[in-house]
Amino acid sequence: MRFFLAAFFLLIASGPITAQTPGAPPSGIPSGTMEQQYTVLGISVSGNRTSDPQTIISQSGLYKGEHLTLPSDVIRSAIQQLWSMGIFSDVEVIVDKQAAQPDGTIGLFLGIHVAELPHLGKYTITGNKEIKTTDIDKALALRPGDFVRPWDLETGRMRVKALYEKEGYHFATITPTQVPTSDTGTVDLAISINEGREMIVRHVDFAGNDHIPSGDLRSAMEDTKEKVWWKIFSSGAFDEKKYETDKGKILDYYHSKGYRDAQILGDSIWVTGENDLNILINVSEGPQYHVRNIAVIGAEVFTPDEVRDHLGFHKGDIYDMVRLEANLHGPTPDFTDVGSLYYDKGYLANIGKEETVVETDSIDLLIRVQEGKQHFFRYVDIKGNTKTKDYVIRRELFTRPGDAFSRAAIIRSIRQLAQLNYFNQEKLQPEFNIQPDATDVDITYNVEEKSSDTFNASVGYGGVLGLTGSIGVSFNNFDIADPLHGGGGEVLSVSAEIGASAYRTLSLSFTEPWLNQRPTSLGFTVYTTHSEYVYTADRTGAALSLGRRFKWPDDFFRGDWTLAAQHSNITNGGGIYTVGIHDETSIQQVISRISTDNPIFPTTGSEFSFLTRLAFLPLPSIAPNQPSNYFKNTFTMKFYTPMLSIGGQNKLVLMTSADVGQLGGVGSTPFVPPTELFVMGGSGLATGIFSVPLRGYDDASIGVQKGSNPSSIYAPGGLAYSRYVAELRFIVSLEPIPIYFLTFAEAGNVWEDFSHADLFDLKRALGVGARVQVPAVGLIGIDFGYGFDSHTAFGAPAGWHTHFQFGRGF
After folding, report:
1. Which of 87, 36, 1, 10 is nearest to 18 (CA)?
2. pLDDT tens track for 746-801
3. What's the alpha-carbon Rg for the chain, to the nearest Å?
4. Which of 30, 184, 258, 514 is buried deepest, with most CB atoms within 10 A?
5. Cα distances (angstroms) measured from residue 388 to each of 385, 415, 702
6. 494: three-class secondary structure by DSSP
7. What is the Cα–Cα distance from 329 to 407, expressed in whole angstroms?
8. Which of 770, 802, 794 is nearest to 697 (CA)?
9. How many whole angstroms separate alpha carbon 367 and alpha carbon 291?
């Protein structure tokens, strides 16, 4: 390739159309005066194999009858034009013959001689182990039949080289060799790869850092990590581009600590042994700055003190440049930055800062605010929804025509649309049209529909109930007025559950989440069950539910109330139920707050839920025996903390949760149905009883089997439980199919009541798992958990257990 490129540029620079002595006329032309006029009498083409002669002549720009002098820029331009076709390895313009003309000019017959590049027959790749052949194919971008251009080969070679460098193989060599074939115009390519050894970062050291420890600076580098035995998640691979980014992270860290003038003076990288990479970074820290004075000018809508409060800096604070920038323009997680102060009131303010160094280590800040005019939403459009009706989307939006422009309202609207789970979340990007010299802002929400209806199935195996499972269909975007098309945002579910021969149930539920287009939900559930878990019972029940989104303390809160009635026929009490009819009427309240950003893979936000149920109103029955008189309280909280962001998306998330529950009898004749008692273990699929998940143990295997009183009516199960979970999740993909892996640690137990609770007596487990959200099926997951404790007092550890799930979350 270097030969051809050099020849090309030499040809352009030298001027003569053939290899002549500088200043000499072209081949076949008599020497003498160079002002002699020539006329082109004819043009011929030679050396071409597949290229059309007329196309070559046309591309050259030469034509019959053209008048020229020699040496001529026209000839030089012709050669350049032919080279630009990219299909020749050699180009010459020669004089085939010449003849004197009656007008005194000399006629020339020009010949264009070309040598075509060969065509590619096939190519082979050998020597690659670390990079897939398909990935190398994409980088090379070679197609059989194309011309084999040296510069294309070099470009492909460099792209393959970049693949290896990204994986830490910086000394990989890629050598393409042309192999002749029986067809003289075609060659094969043999691409040989010598991968060499992966370069592993062994040491990252710093010089000149007198105030910031080297360990803190190493931690600031996100992708360039030392490979040591205890860093199991660090490969130590060296990526040059990421390394350059990491050097910027080092400066960001210095800036966050007040070292405004910090610089990287230089760095050294060398290899020891076969593949150990060593890095030394020389830094200049400079002084640590503190904030002295903060002045605000231009603020009229808000006072200077309000701007300073949102800036979050006070006299004497370390001059954290990173936090200052975030607090100026945001958005911060709680929208308390100065930018949000204005942007959420409709002012698209221009906010800048000026720094003045005083006393060598202090900063006076001047915040300049250009507030401008208040802006309002004019048109709020929706595009891309083919099933979901416009009003279903609009009612979730917090941006309404006539409202003041608000960045927080836009972010909240996107979050609400994501929670519907009707749309491709990666495509939920609004478009803005801000009218020049006006106060109107038009916003368009572009959505891309995806399947939200699911065919749900779950299966599990527990030592108590044996094989358990369920099957059902859920129409999550149903429309009772248009059932064939849907898109009304209603939820219709039909499900059946089976626990071997011990349990059967059938249920039907319907929910209208926005009654009369208000944030009020209304729904009902009817069910019938048959269970043979210690006792034999048939139950029929119904529930009516009402819910409402609150405005206080904020609009993430909501309340849900349920009125339920159940009629039970106990044919075998199993020693804990009285045979006969048992009725229950209950009122339940759930106060919850959910501020997560994604229903399938939440990365930020939290979930809180407090449930209270009171069963103390028995319905009249033919032969009442023991009406249910009890209360139930459960509290659950979950937090989602992003740990690692890649490409602007939170990839690694820590989920921590805790939940507790309490039961107790009420009235003069207290009675807690055995179906309500807490048991724990497995995936929580132990149908027919309130089973709390705890991976690493059999379903429903943890619980108080007998209380201190042998005749206790609260067995089997307990009146109190607690559980704690820490789960680290890594998302592989979010669209079109969400896939994530996880590792978990959890602990929990069930007690006879809270007076017997011991938070140091917990059943512990560790494990790993994976989840995939399959369209029209739902969430599919598998977990492998190891239980460190026994579910009985003196048993062996529970050991390894496998838990499957279909359509449910733990």
Report:
1. 10
2. 999 999 888 888 888 899 999 999 998 876 666 788 999 999 998 776 778 989 99
3. 38
4. 258
5. 6, 17, 44
6. strand
7. 12
8. 802
9. 13
